[in-house]
Design goal:
two-stranded parallel sheet; alpha+beta
Amino acid sequence: MNPSAKDFLRAFEEVSAENIIVFPNNGNVILTAEQASMTYEGAKVTVVKSKSVVECYSALGLLDLENGSLEDNLSCIEDSLNNLICAEISTAVRDSHNNGVEVHSGDYIGIQGGEVKCAKPTLMDATIALFASIIEMGEKSAITVF
């Protein structure tokens, strides 16, 4: 379930911090988080427009909470999100034709950038095909798999 603005405000109160960085990790929650951040007066609240946990983990790995200023950290987060390719594998619940890919119920589907990139009968085949589509986009400096 998506949190309400009241849920965010309660969380902000519980944190009791001077600066709060919010990672909604869901495109449907960003607006609510921003709405709550504009009404909260107990701290400076910054909402990062993250749409997935992968984006959040990437950004959190770059934070320097000991030596970096809030602005420096927010700059690192922005750079991280601008240079990140986010992909996931899920299981198809029905037959479909999506982005030129024939999908059958039960297939493992590789999704990148909100688009279906592949549909395969096994998890390993889908993983390999999804990685191949990412590699075609150009050289990458790191890959993290959850």
